[in-house]
Amino acid sequence: MGFEQIIILSVLAFAFIALAFDVWSPDAVLVTALAIATASGVISLEEAFLGFGNTTLVALGSLYVVGTGLRESGALDQASEFILGKKTRSVQRILLRLCPSVSVYSAFLNNTPIVAMGIPAIRSWAKKKNIPASKLLMPLSYAAILGGMCTLIGTSTNLITHGLLQSHGFEGFSFFELAWVGVPCAISGLIYLVFVSPKLTPARRDIRYQEELKRKLLVELEITDGAEVIGKEVGEAGLTVFPGFYLSRINRNEQEIAPVPENEKLRAGDHLFYAAEGGIAAKKPNLTGYPGLRLAFQPPRTIRRDEKDRELHQVVVKEGSRLVGATVGEAKLLERFGAAVTGVRRKGERIDEPLGEFVLHPGDVLLLDTGRGFRGAYEGTEDFFLTSEAGGEVPGDVSEIKEERPGGKDLYISIAVLVGIIGLVAFGFMHIALAGVLGVAVLLAFNVIEAGEARQSIDWTVLIVIGSALGLGRAMEVSGTSVIIGQGLVDLTSIYGPRTVLAGVVIVTVILTELITNNGAVALMFPIALSIAETQGLAARPLFIGITLAASMSLLTPIGYQTNLMVYGPGNYKFTDFFKVGFPLQLVLWAVVIILVPVFWPM
User: Fold this and answer.
1) DSSP-derived secondary structure for 477-515
2) Suppose 65 and one of 348, 404, 454, 455 were both cysteines; which one would form an S-S bond, judging by CB atoms 3.0 to 4.6 Å apart?
3) Which of 272, 277, 216 is nearest to 243 (CA)?
4) In this predicted model, what pLDDT tens digit does every residue of 546-555 receive, in sequence order?
């Protein structure tokens, strides 16, 4: 093993460890890994960053914008209402309507906006029907993943392999080529989701309900006129904590301040809310030495709210968000978004500690008290996914406030653009990147979306991950590292024939997907699959099909795929719930791929 190969293997080990332990976001880890590989001289600067000029990134970016056009025009809203219906009450029946429909939409649209629109609609519907949303949200994510396996534009991994095939002199995927195996995978998966998953998914209360129960346990103190603490900062007045209690939030003129900065100056009439350590207030705070403070409410208390001015929302922190790594206090959500953080949940558990110093991670759910119109103003933000409907959520009731989407001309144009892109690519008239860019131009020309909205709709983190992973894949090729890894896989599996080689490649890809994202996995596995095909005299295309489909099978953890992360908090799931529901489905999909790929693409 030479110096260059040792360098690349070390860089890959660094990347895997950093991603597995959530040291940095995936884009930061992979860009750093690529920079190290380039600085070591293994690959030239031009080759290293050639991936950022790949047409796949142009195609994917344009499809993000098209998806936003469909959302803004109201197309996805109407689709959600049609799918959920008004009469269905059985979990199995709603899954029978929901999952196939989502898979069909996901075959032609980026699945992120589909799931983003589906979460608030499902939560609202489930509340009306008194059905746990946790029974529906994980199947929503999995159905979107299954649909993405069926067409060229179904998911970014398909486009990455398509671009790599063309750059290596192979014929790219036709629009429906993956459907030969993708559709059987989707059908098998949908049968599992409809008839088996209801027995495995947990039945848990919506997190908003649990949060309101916790809020009833808050102790409320009022600062009366003439109190000594008026004009003092919270920390200076010594009101951050009492023995057995910590300051959760301040209510001032019907607006909440949370978390409370230590330099926040107190005013007469402020209501201070204290949470008991451990969540249960067995006694009241000792107010001796604090003249002017009076006990306003002791648990249990009634939650009152001015519904005309305030909304309750929940959001999920995105991968690559500016909030990641910051404390709740440093995030300054009150200044940035006019939102007070009234609660945080991680891995299905409520955080019962002072929130100001709590460090945020991707997937954390923030419960926010906001002004009116919050969803409309921040639906497209790069910092979090909104998982509550327009108008927010009112304790004990279902909000009937609906956000108005344009409909009409915008709706028809956005649908026509999507159909046009599909037609141009499916019949071979135009490259997917060019068709996508022209589609975006049409949306801009007819004012379906603004240029600023188009720019914000693109997930730049995903594009950076793809560009960096393509560069690392190229470094593996030029250093010969892909040959070493491929030979190791062959030594383990070839004794049992080509099908077991395919099985080994598929399983390794699935493992990498959970560690370094689906896009990184397919970019790194492509040179390995190519090396195996060349050294063993096997047809390369079956291996490329295998890694492409396997990279989309992120079903075992909530962090391996963006849609899983999106439903993780709103569904009140635990980390292990995904393995419990996803592993049997993973086995089914593995079997379908390993059996059918050699049938349609002989090895």
Assistant:
1) HHHTHHHHHHHHHHHHHGGG-HHHHHHHHHHHHHHHHHH
2) 454
3) 277
4) 999 999 898 9
Encoded tokens for 500: 């077991």
Sheet holding 365-371, edge to edge: 349-350, 340-346, 365-371, 310-317, 384-386
Structure tokens that stand for 253 in this block: 């003129």
Which amino acid belongs to residue 375?
A: R
The predicted-structure confidence for 57-115, as pLDDT tens digits, reads as follows 999 899 889 988 888 888 777 777 777 776 666 788 889 989 999 999 999 988 887 88
The whole-model pTM stands at: 0.79
Q: Please say whether the beta carbons of 328 and 344 come within 8 A.
A: yes
Q: Which residues contact 484 (CB under 8 A, 6 or more apart)?
A: 1, 5, 9
Q: What is the mean pLDDT of residues 202-211?
A: 72
Asked whether the bond before 300 is cis by omega within 30 degrees of 0, the reply is yes
For 156-185, what is each residue's pLDDT tens digit?
Answer: 999 999 999 999 999 999 999 999 999 999
Give the whole-angstrom CA distance, residue 137 versus residue 570: 8
Q: Rounded to an integer, what distance in angstroms lies between the CA atom of residue 421 and that of residue 573?
A: 37
Residue with tokens 């689709």: 79
Instruction: Provide φ and ψ at 203, rounded to 5°.
Output: -105, 95
Q: Do 188 and 599 contact (CB within 8 A), yes or no?
A: no
The structure tokens listed for 124 are 């609202």
Residues in CB range of 248: below 8 A, 6 or more apart:
218, 258, 260, 273, 274, 275, 342, 354, 355
Angle at 8 between CA 551 and CA 163, to 5 degrees: 40
